[in-house]
Write a structure and sequence with these properties.
171 residues; mainly alpha; three-stranded antiparallel β-sheet; 3 strands; 78% helix; 5% strand; rod-shaped
């Protein structure tokens, strides 16, 4: 007993037959663990193989989905490219219209400047005409105050033989 208990970590002494039984029991548990480990390893390999198959299948599905997405994106890109082209044509048309409008605007501003110049000239002519009218009215008023009968030349001859016109002496 002392030999068997010295070889183990068991604190209680065991006989050789108990030790053999214990060794067989431990060996059977080890074998069972080995078989379980082997089953787990095979199951793991099977899972990895299926995972690779599933991965390749999911990769194929992903590739097909990506191909569909690429086709959709290409179609959308073509549509947007056509739309951009149409918008480019519209922009060019609008640029032409803008140039025409700028030309018309410049002509309008030129005409406005000419009209302002002419307006200033007409204002000056009007002011001059108003001044002339005032002056003419003043002259008219002066002429209204003139008595025509008083301004007739009176020729009279006095006894001394000297004549006078409107009081001025004529020799």
């Amino acid at each position: 007993m002392s030999i068997a208990s010295g070889e183990t970590n068991i604190s209680t002494p065991m006989c050789l037959s108990c030790t053999d039984l214990m060794r067989q029991h431990i060996k059977s548990e080890g074998d069972e663990l080995y078989r379980s480990n082997e089953h787990l390893r095979r199951a793991s390999e099977y899972m990895k193989a299926n995972e690779q198959k599933n991965n390749s299948l999911s990769v194929k599905l992903a590739v097909e989905e990506n191909a569909r997405e690429i086709m959709e994106l290409e179609n959308e890109f073509s549509f947007l490219k056509t739309k951009a082209s149409n918008l480019g044509i519209k922009i060019n048309d609008l640029d032409c219209e803008l140039e025409k409008l700028k030309s018309i605007e410049n002509k309008i501003w030129s005409d406005i400047c000419i009209l302002r110049f002419e307006q200033n000239e007409l204002n000056e002519i009007h002011e001059y005409s108003v001044e002339q009218l005032k002056h003419t009215q003043e002259i008219l008023e002066i002429t209204r105050n003139i008595n025509v009968y008083e301004d007739i030349f009176r020729i009279c001859i006095e006894s001394c033989g000297v004549g006078s016109i409107n009081g001025f002496r004529i020799d």
